[in-house]
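Hey, weird one. I pasted the 4Fe-4S ferredoxin-type domain-containing protein sequence into the form twice and got a warning about non-standard characters only the second time. First submission, copied straight from the form history:
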Amino acid sequence: MIIYYYSTTGNSLYVARELQKSLPDVELRSLVTAGQEEAPVVDTDCVGFVFPMHYFGLPLQVEEFLQKLTLANSPYVFAVATCGVPYWGTPFMDMEKILAAKNCQVQAKWYVRLVSNYIPYRDIAADWRIAIRAWLAEKKIRKIAKAIAGREHHDTWQLLKKFCQSYHDKWQARQQSIDENFQCDKEKCTACGLCEKICPRDNIKRPNGQPVWQHKCVECLGCLHICPVKAIDYGDITKGRKRYRHKEVKAADLLRGISAAK
């Protein structure tokens, strides 16, 4: 079994790891690293994808990877979307459209609710809420692993499809301007380079030590959350708000799955 994960703040990597612990013979692959291959091919009887939702849909890099991936021998395909609010969105519908063109199906899909890292919308949840979601997620992941082991089919709600699809499409259409809201406080910045290393799109350069965004952002917010001195903000709205990384995932684990692609 191969599980591809896409993660810059740890939720999806955590879920992928927990599935790996519960299932036999599982290989985890960073989707960012695998996406650097010109024509990736996976030939196994079971393949999974674990990713966050971006603007109610698939992250752009997940979409691009699926479009060029070849799935051999009609494997059992499953997908897990980590999110702050489940059921709103079309990530699985988007995924199914792409794979249908390759004569493949997604046999099982689930949402796992953890913590949203999208602090331009609102601050990170309180610790007690994070703890409750972690406990519920752990129980759900065990159920998911059992279903995958039995190659069960599983469907899930995808609500407000037209609204969510329109919202996602509008966001995707303005990709070149997405990162215009990011700013760096040069007085705080220590030029550690973590923002450049965590970026899955190679969208950050540091000609003078501080980050300069290159207008091909996928808005994963990895740079904002990994900065150890909170020098990076999304406009003024995120100033004073907490930063997030899943407590079971180290920054080095995230960087390992991204830096190898650079």
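That's the output from the first submission. The warning seems to come from a hidden character in my clipboard, not from the data itself. The chain has two domains: 2-164, 175-259.
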